[in-house]
Amino acid sequence: MSTTTEIASAGLDAGRETEECCTLSSGPVNSVDAERLASLLKALSDPTRLRLLSHVAAQGCDSVCACDLTEPLGISQPTVSHHMKKLVDAGLLTREQKGRWAHYSVVPSAFAELRAFLDIA
After folding, report:
1. Are 94 and 107 in contact (CB under 8 A)?
2. What is the pLDDT of residues 79-114, one digit of tens each?
3. φ, ψ for residue 95, nearest 5 deg
4. Are strands 93-98 and 101-106 parallel, antiparallel or unpaired?
5. Which phi-psi region, left, alpha or beta, contains residue 91 (left: φ > 0; alpha: ψ -120 to 50)?
6. Which sign does the torsion angle of CA 47, 49, 55, 61 carry?
7. Which of the four pLDDT bands, split at 50, 70 and 90, describes residue 4?
8. SS3 sequence, 37-95?
9. 64-65: strand order across its sheet
10. Distance CA 51, CA 44 (A)
């Protein structure tokens, strides 16, 4: 009869045989790139910002008016402005003033940079 420890150990050993090694395809990052990537990831670390970003990104190449983000997300306009400023400052979105409203668009190169960094093969 096998003990729980023996079964667990056997399962771990079996998992190691099938597990593949992961490497960062672009290699280690230097300090400048690490600062830039940390800034991007920090901006993305807030759930409200992720939701806002997903609404903008869902429009593709079209810009999104800040006025169209309050109701679907159930947040106030000042909260939208605060979080969108963080995303713009990080370089993930661009902001264009049209009349009294700000319009936001995705910066594709920022996401290409994140994608390249996160590409673990």
Report:
1. yes
2. 999 999 999 999 999 999 999 999 999 999 998 988
3. -125, 135
4. antiparallel
5. left
6. negative
7. very low
8. HHHHHHHHCCHHHHHHHHHHHCCCCCCEEHHHCHHHHCCCHHHHHHHHHHHHHHCCEEE
9. 64-65, 101-106, 93-98
10. 10
